[in-house]
Amino acid sequence: MALPGFSQGIGATAGGVSSANLLFSSAVAVGDSIIVHMATNNSSGAATVVDNVNANTYAQAVKSTLATSTNTVMQTFYKLAVSSGAAASTYRVSMNFGASLGYGAWIGAYTNLATVSSVASSSQGTSTRVQPPAVTSSAGSVLFTYIATYDDLNNFASTAVQGGTFRSLQDNANANQTLIVGDVITSSLTVQPGFSKGAGGWVCHIAAFVASTSGAAAAVLSPFRFVLMGVQ
Amino acid sequence: MAQITIPNAVRQGTVSTPSVVCPAGLSSAAIVVTMPNQSERDDVGNTMEVRLEFSTDGGTTFKSYFTVGWQGGSGYVDKQGVRNPPANMTLAGDSLGALSGSRLRCTFVIPNAVTAGCVITAL
User: Is the dihedral of CA A134, A57, A72, A108 positive or negative?
Assistant: First the structure.
Protein backbone atom coordinates (compact mmCIF):
# COMPACT_ATOMS: atom_id res chain seq x y z
CA MET A 1 0.00 0.00 0.00
CA ALA A 2 1.54 3.30 -1.08
CA LEU A 3 2.01 6.00 1.50
CA PRO A 4 -0.05 9.18 1.41
CA GLY A 5 1.77 12.27 0.18
CA PHE A 6 1.82 15.91 1.17
CA SER A 7 1.09 18.29 -1.72
CA GLN A 8 0.79 21.80 -0.33
CA GLY A 9 -0.40 23.88 2.59
CA ILE A 10 -1.02 27.47 3.54
CA GLY A 11 -1.66 29.03 6.94
CA ALA A 12 -3.33 32.19 8.15
CA THR A 13 -4.41 34.08 11.23
CA ALA A 14 -6.97 36.81 11.61
CA GLY A 15 -8.83 38.65 14.32
CA GLY A 16 -12.11 40.50 14.66
CA VAL A 17 -13.64 38.63 11.76
CA SER A 18 -16.39 36.06 11.26
CA SER A 19 -15.38 34.39 8.02
CA ALA A 20 -12.35 33.59 5.95
CA ASN A 21 -11.40 32.02 2.71
CA LEU A 22 -8.00 30.79 1.68
CA LEU A 23 -6.62 29.95 -1.73
CA PHE A 24 -4.32 27.06 -2.59
CA SER A 25 -1.46 28.53 -4.59
CA SER A 26 -0.76 25.32 -6.52
CA ALA A 27 -3.16 23.13 -8.44
CA VAL A 28 -5.41 20.69 -6.60
CA ALA A 29 -5.77 17.40 -8.48
CA VAL A 30 -8.72 15.07 -8.76
CA GLY A 31 -8.40 12.58 -5.93
CA ASP A 32 -6.50 14.89 -3.60
CA SER A 33 -7.80 15.19 -0.05
CA ILE A 34 -8.05 18.44 1.87
CA ILE A 35 -7.48 18.81 5.59
CA VAL A 36 -8.51 22.01 7.40
CA HIS A 37 -7.27 22.79 10.89
CA MET A 38 -8.30 25.76 12.97
CA ALA A 39 -8.03 27.14 16.47
CA THR A 40 -10.39 29.87 17.63
CA ASN A 41 -10.81 32.00 20.72
CA ASN A 42 -14.60 31.90 20.85
CA SER A 43 -16.54 28.78 21.72
CA SER A 44 -19.57 30.06 19.84
CA GLY A 45 -17.59 30.15 16.64
CA ALA A 46 -18.33 26.65 15.45
CA ALA A 47 -17.05 26.65 11.93
CA THR A 48 -18.53 25.28 8.78
CA VAL A 49 -16.16 24.66 5.89
CA VAL A 50 -16.88 24.52 2.16
CA ASP A 51 -14.93 25.07 -1.03
CA ASN A 52 -15.70 26.58 -4.40
CA VAL A 53 -15.08 23.45 -6.46
CA ASN A 54 -16.73 20.44 -4.86
CA ALA A 55 -20.17 20.25 -3.29
CA ASN A 56 -20.97 19.43 0.34
CA THR A 57 -19.55 20.80 3.53
CA TYR A 58 -16.39 19.36 5.00
CA ALA A 59 -16.79 16.71 7.66
CA GLN A 60 -15.48 17.39 11.13
CA ALA A 61 -12.92 14.85 12.25
CA VAL A 62 -12.36 16.06 15.77
CA LYS A 63 -13.07 19.05 17.99
CA SER A 64 -11.27 19.86 21.22
CA THR A 65 -11.83 22.49 23.88
CA LEU A 66 -9.21 23.63 26.37
CA ALA A 67 -10.73 22.76 29.73
CA THR A 68 -9.13 25.69 31.53
CA SER A 69 -10.29 28.19 28.91
CA THR A 70 -13.43 26.99 27.19
CA ASN A 71 -13.25 29.77 24.62
CA THR A 72 -10.16 28.08 23.20
CA VAL A 73 -11.39 25.57 20.64
CA MET A 74 -9.71 23.53 17.92
CA GLN A 75 -11.39 21.80 15.00
CA THR A 76 -10.15 19.55 12.20
CA PHE A 77 -12.18 19.11 9.03
CA TYR A 78 -11.61 17.07 5.90
CA LYS A 79 -12.86 16.28 2.43
CA LEU A 80 -11.44 13.09 1.00
CA ALA A 81 -10.60 12.31 -2.61
CA VAL A 82 -12.17 15.33 -4.28
CA SER A 83 -14.01 14.54 -7.49
CA SER A 84 -12.95 17.79 -9.19
CA GLY A 85 -9.61 19.52 -9.07
CA ALA A 86 -8.67 23.07 -9.98
CA ALA A 87 -5.77 24.96 -11.48
CA ALA A 88 -3.22 26.88 -9.42
CA SER A 89 -4.64 29.79 -7.42
CA THR A 90 -8.25 28.87 -8.04
CA TYR A 91 -9.18 26.30 -5.36
CA ARG A 92 -10.66 28.29 -2.48
CA VAL A 93 -11.58 26.95 0.97
CA SER A 94 -14.08 29.01 2.95
CA MET A 95 -14.70 28.98 6.69
CA ASN A 96 -17.71 30.58 8.30
CA PHE A 97 -17.55 30.99 12.06
CA GLY A 98 -20.94 32.53 12.73
CA ALA A 99 -19.41 34.97 15.20
CA SER A 100 -16.59 37.45 15.34
CA LEU A 101 -13.44 35.94 16.78
CA GLY A 102 -9.73 35.41 16.38
CA TYR A 103 -8.29 32.31 14.82
CA GLY A 104 -5.32 30.48 13.39
CA ALA A 105 -6.01 28.23 10.43
CA TRP A 106 -4.22 25.95 8.02
CA ILE A 107 -5.38 24.15 4.89
CA GLY A 108 -3.41 21.28 3.41
CA ALA A 109 -3.75 19.02 0.38
CA TYR A 110 -2.60 15.40 0.41
CA THR A 111 -2.55 12.59 -2.10
CA ASN A 112 -3.70 9.01 -1.70
CA LEU A 113 -6.04 9.26 1.27
CA ALA A 114 -9.15 7.12 1.24
CA THR A 115 -10.67 6.83 4.67
CA VAL A 116 -10.71 8.53 8.02
CA SER A 117 -9.60 6.33 10.89
CA SER A 118 -11.51 6.10 14.13
CA VAL A 119 -8.49 6.74 16.34
CA ALA A 120 -8.83 10.52 16.73
CA SER A 121 -7.80 11.55 20.18
CA SER A 122 -7.12 14.63 22.27
CA SER A 123 -5.14 15.53 25.34
CA GLN A 124 -4.47 18.53 27.52
CA GLY A 125 -1.65 19.46 29.81
CA THR A 126 0.69 22.08 31.19
CA SER A 127 4.10 20.56 30.59
CA THR A 128 6.58 21.75 27.99
CA ARG A 129 6.05 18.56 26.00
CA VAL A 130 2.87 19.02 23.98
CA GLN A 131 1.55 15.80 22.54
CA PRO A 132 -1.64 13.93 21.84
CA PRO A 133 -2.11 10.46 23.27
CA ALA A 134 -0.36 7.65 21.44
CA VAL A 135 -2.71 6.41 18.77
CA THR A 136 -2.74 3.18 16.81
CA SER A 137 -4.22 2.82 13.38
CA SER A 138 -5.80 -0.43 12.27
CA ALA A 139 -4.07 -0.19 8.90
CA GLY A 140 -0.65 0.87 7.65
CA SER A 141 0.12 3.73 5.25
CA VAL A 142 -1.41 6.44 7.35
CA LEU A 143 -1.38 10.21 7.60
CA PHE A 144 -1.46 11.25 11.24
CA THR A 145 -2.12 14.98 11.42
CA TYR A 146 -1.99 16.80 14.74
CA ILE A 147 -2.39 20.33 16.01
CA ALA A 148 -2.14 22.26 19.25
CA THR A 149 -3.01 25.62 20.73
CA TYR A 150 -2.79 27.36 24.10
CA ASP A 151 -4.26 30.19 26.09
CA ASP A 152 -1.23 31.94 27.51
CA LEU A 153 1.80 33.79 26.24
CA ASN A 154 4.28 30.93 26.58
CA ASN A 155 4.98 30.41 22.92
CA PHE A 156 5.79 27.21 21.12
CA ALA A 157 9.52 26.93 21.60
CA SER A 158 10.33 26.33 17.97
CA THR A 159 8.93 25.00 14.79
CA ALA A 160 10.68 21.71 15.49
CA VAL A 161 8.34 18.82 16.04
CA GLN A 162 9.11 15.59 17.77
CA GLY A 163 8.47 12.49 15.73
CA GLY A 164 6.79 14.28 12.88
CA THR A 165 7.05 16.94 10.21
CA PHE A 166 6.36 20.61 10.93
CA ARG A 167 3.76 22.15 8.63
CA SER A 168 2.71 25.50 10.06
CA LEU A 169 2.86 27.85 13.02
CA GLN A 170 0.41 30.74 13.03
CA ASP A 171 0.19 33.59 15.53
CA ASN A 172 2.74 32.29 18.01
CA ALA A 173 2.29 35.54 19.98
CA ASN A 174 -1.32 34.43 20.49
CA ALA A 175 -2.81 37.80 19.61
CA ASN A 176 -5.65 36.09 17.72
CA GLN A 177 -5.31 32.34 18.39
CA THR A 178 -2.15 30.38 17.85
CA LEU A 179 -2.13 27.14 15.87
CA ILE A 180 0.72 24.74 15.25
CA VAL A 181 0.40 21.89 12.77
CA GLY A 182 2.48 18.77 12.24
CA ASP A 183 2.00 15.43 10.58
CA VAL A 184 3.44 11.94 10.32
CA ILE A 185 3.18 9.93 7.13
CA THR A 186 4.13 6.41 7.94
CA SER A 187 3.57 2.71 7.58
CA SER A 188 3.93 2.36 11.35
CA LEU A 189 0.69 1.72 13.16
CA THR A 190 1.39 3.61 16.38
CA VAL A 191 2.68 7.16 16.77
CA GLN A 192 2.88 9.82 19.45
CA PRO A 193 4.44 12.93 17.96
CA GLY A 194 4.60 16.25 19.74
CA PHE A 195 5.65 19.87 19.99
CA SER A 196 7.47 21.81 22.67
CA LYS A 197 6.39 25.06 24.28
CA GLY A 198 6.89 27.13 27.38
CA ALA A 199 5.04 25.83 30.40
CA GLY A 200 1.35 26.58 30.43
CA GLY A 201 -1.96 25.04 29.51
CA TRP A 202 -2.38 23.54 26.06
CA VAL A 203 -4.68 21.26 24.12
CA CYS A 204 -3.47 18.96 21.36
CA HIS A 205 -5.35 16.56 19.14
CA ILE A 206 -4.58 14.08 16.41
CA ALA A 207 -6.54 12.57 13.54
CA ALA A 208 -5.61 9.76 11.19
CA PHE A 209 -6.39 9.07 7.56
CA VAL A 210 -5.63 5.79 5.81
CA ALA A 211 -4.26 5.46 2.29
CA SER A 212 -6.14 3.86 -0.52
CA THR A 213 -5.32 0.23 -1.19
CA SER A 214 -6.13 0.53 -4.87
CA GLY A 215 -5.63 4.17 -5.59
CA ALA A 216 -9.39 4.64 -5.89
CA ALA A 217 -11.35 6.75 -3.47
CA ALA A 218 -13.38 4.96 -0.84
CA ALA A 219 -16.12 6.03 1.50
CA VAL A 220 -15.52 7.05 5.09
CA LEU A 221 -15.49 3.85 7.08
CA SER A 222 -16.45 4.99 10.51
CA PRO A 223 -17.08 8.10 12.52
CA PHE A 224 -14.45 9.50 14.76
CA ARG A 225 -14.39 8.56 18.37
CA PHE A 226 -13.43 11.56 20.49
CA VAL A 227 -11.42 10.72 23.55
CA LEU A 228 -10.66 13.38 26.10
CA MET A 229 -7.74 12.22 28.14
CA GLY A 230 -7.97 14.89 30.77
CA VAL A 231 -5.29 17.11 32.19
CA GLN A 232 -1.95 15.41 32.29
CA MET B 1 10.45 43.82 4.33
CA ALA B 2 8.03 45.97 2.38
CA GLN B 3 5.38 48.06 4.07
CA ILE B 4 2.86 50.70 3.14
CA THR B 5 0.49 52.66 5.38
CA ILE B 6 -2.86 53.69 3.98
CA PRO B 7 -4.19 56.61 6.05
CA ASN B 8 -7.63 56.67 7.57
CA ALA B 9 -10.26 58.22 5.32
CA VAL B 10 -13.97 57.83 4.75
CA ARG B 11 -14.30 54.88 2.37
CA GLN B 12 -17.22 53.16 0.69
CA GLY B 13 -17.63 50.67 -2.11
CA THR B 14 -14.82 48.55 -3.51
CA VAL B 15 -11.57 50.32 -2.73
CA SER B 16 -8.12 48.99 -3.62
CA THR B 17 -4.97 50.39 -2.08
CA PRO B 18 -1.67 50.99 -3.84
CA SER B 19 0.51 47.90 -3.88
CA VAL B 20 3.95 47.01 -2.58
CA VAL B 21 6.54 44.70 -4.13
CA CYS B 22 7.03 41.56 -2.05
CA PRO B 23 10.63 40.85 -1.05
CA ALA B 24 12.61 37.77 -2.02
CA GLY B 25 11.91 34.83 0.24
CA LEU B 26 8.43 36.06 1.06
CA SER B 27 7.20 34.26 4.15
CA SER B 28 4.22 36.30 5.32
CA ALA B 29 1.84 38.99 4.15
CA ALA B 30 -0.29 40.96 6.56
CA ILE B 31 -2.99 43.60 6.62
CA VAL B 32 -3.93 45.43 9.79
CA VAL B 33 -7.06 47.51 9.29
CA THR B 34 -7.50 50.73 11.25
CA MET B 35 -10.96 52.02 12.14
CA PRO B 36 -10.48 54.86 14.62
CA ASN B 37 -14.18 55.53 15.32
CA GLN B 38 -15.55 53.29 18.04
CA SER B 39 -19.10 54.26 17.13
CA GLU B 40 -18.60 52.94 13.62
CA ARG B 41 -17.16 49.68 14.94
CA ASP B 42 -20.13 49.32 17.30
CA ASP B 43 -22.70 49.75 14.52
CA VAL B 44 -24.17 46.40 13.53
CA GLY B 45 -25.06 47.87 10.15
CA ASN B 46 -21.42 48.25 9.21
CA THR B 47 -19.71 45.39 7.41
CA MET B 48 -16.46 45.05 5.53
CA GLU B 49 -14.77 42.46 3.37
CA VAL B 50 -11.00 42.69 3.36
CA ARG B 51 -9.01 40.99 0.63
CA LEU B 52 -5.29 40.30 0.64
CA GLU B 53 -4.43 40.30 -3.04
CA PHE B 54 -1.34 39.43 -5.07
CA SER B 55 -0.47 40.34 -8.63
CA THR B 56 2.03 38.24 -10.56
CA ASP B 57 1.84 40.36 -13.72
CA GLY B 58 3.28 43.59 -12.40
CA GLY B 59 0.05 44.99 -11.04
CA THR B 60 -2.24 44.54 -14.04
CA THR B 61 -4.45 41.93 -12.43
CA PHE B 62 -4.80 40.93 -8.77
CA LYS B 63 -6.16 37.78 -7.16
CA SER B 64 -7.36 37.39 -3.58
CA TYR B 65 -5.44 34.74 -1.66
CA PHE B 66 -7.03 35.46 1.72
CA THR B 67 -10.35 37.16 2.37
CA VAL B 68 -12.03 37.88 5.69
CA GLY B 69 -15.44 39.20 6.61
CA TRP B 70 -15.88 41.81 9.36
CA GLN B 71 -19.16 42.75 11.06
CA GLY B 72 -19.62 45.75 13.32
CA GLY B 73 -21.34 45.60 16.68
CA SER B 74 -20.74 41.94 17.30
CA GLY B 75 -19.67 42.54 20.87
CA TYR B 76 -16.47 40.61 20.36
CA VAL B 77 -13.63 41.73 22.62
CA ASP B 78 -10.21 40.64 21.47
CA LYS B 79 -7.31 39.47 23.64
CA GLN B 80 -6.02 43.03 23.85
CA GLY B 81 -9.35 44.18 25.30
CA VAL B 82 -10.53 46.04 22.21
CA ARG B 83 -14.30 45.92 21.68
CA ASN B 84 -15.41 45.25 18.11
CA PRO B 85 -11.85 45.50 16.81
CA PRO B 86 -11.13 46.09 13.14
CA ALA B 87 -9.86 43.14 11.15
CA ASN B 88 -6.27 41.99 11.09
CA MET B 89 -5.02 39.19 8.89
CA THR B 90 -1.76 37.42 8.14
CA LEU B 91 -1.07 34.83 5.49
CA ALA B 92 2.02 32.71 6.02
CA GLY B 93 3.73 29.61 4.79
CA ASP B 94 6.56 28.27 2.69
CA SER B 95 4.40 28.29 -0.41
CA LEU B 96 4.33 32.09 -0.28
CA GLY B 97 7.92 32.04 -1.51
CA ALA B 98 6.54 31.50 -4.99
CA LEU B 99 4.99 34.97 -4.72
CA SER B 100 8.29 36.74 -4.06
CA GLY B 101 8.52 39.71 -6.37
CA SER B 102 4.78 39.88 -6.86
CA ARG B 103 2.78 42.94 -5.84
CA LEU B 104 0.63 42.92 -2.70
CA ARG B 105 -2.33 45.15 -1.98
CA CYS B 106 -5.51 45.35 0.08
CA THR B 107 -9.00 45.67 -1.34
CA PHE B 108 -11.89 46.73 0.88
CA VAL B 109 -15.52 46.07 0.05
CA ILE B 110 -17.50 48.47 2.25
CA PRO B 111 -21.28 48.79 1.79
CA ASN B 112 -21.78 51.66 4.26
CA ALA B 113 -19.28 54.51 4.46
CA VAL B 114 -16.82 54.18 7.36
CA THR B 115 -13.50 55.72 8.24
CA ALA B 116 -10.80 53.14 7.63
CA GLY B 117 -7.18 52.68 6.66
CA CYS B 118 -4.66 49.90 6.87
CA VAL B 119 -1.04 48.88 7.12
CA ILE B 120 0.19 46.33 4.59
CA THR B 121 3.37 44.39 5.36
CA ALA B 122 5.24 41.77 3.35
CA LEU B 123 8.09 39.93 5.07
Answer: positive
Q: In this structure, is the dihedral angle defined by the CA atoms of residues A200, A97, A43 and A101, taken in order, positive or negative? A: positive
Residue A95: closest C-alpha in chain B: B68
Give the C-alpha separation, A201 to A134, whole Å: 19
* pLDDT in the model for residue A228: 34
Contact between B76 and A101 using a beta-carbon 8 Å cutoff: yes
ipTM: 0.95
Decide the pairing of beta strands B103-122 and B28-34. Answer: antiparallel
Identify the DSSP state of B39. Answer: H
Search chain B and give the residue with CA nearest A7. Answer: B95
Q: Across the interface, which of B68, B74, B79 has its CB nearest the CB of A19?
A: B68
The residue of chain B nearest to residue A10, with distances taken between CA atoms, is B93
Angstrom CA distances, A113 to A85, A90, A93, A216, stand at 15, 22, 19, 9
What global pTM score does this model have? 0.92
Q: Which run of H or E residues covers position B40?
A: helix B38-41
Sheet strands (E) in A24-164: 33-40, 48-51, 59-65, 73-79, 92-111, 115-116, 121-125, 129-130, 135-136, 142-150
Task: List the helix and strand counts (H, then E) for chain A.
Answer: 0, 17
Decide if B69 and A19 are in contact by the 8 Å CB cutoff. Answer: yes
pLDDT tier at A153, thresholds 50, 70, 90: confident
Closest-CA distance of chain A to residue B15, Å = 19
Cross-strand partners of A155: none
Torsion of CA A158, A162, A164, A168, to 10 degrees: -20
Residues 17-56 of chain B whose Cβ lies under 8 A from any Cβ of chain A = 50
Q: Phi and psi for A156 in degrees, rounded to 5?
A: -60, 135
Query: Rounded CA gap, A132 and B48, in Å?
Result: 38
Four-residue CA torsion sign, B14, B17, B21, B25: negative
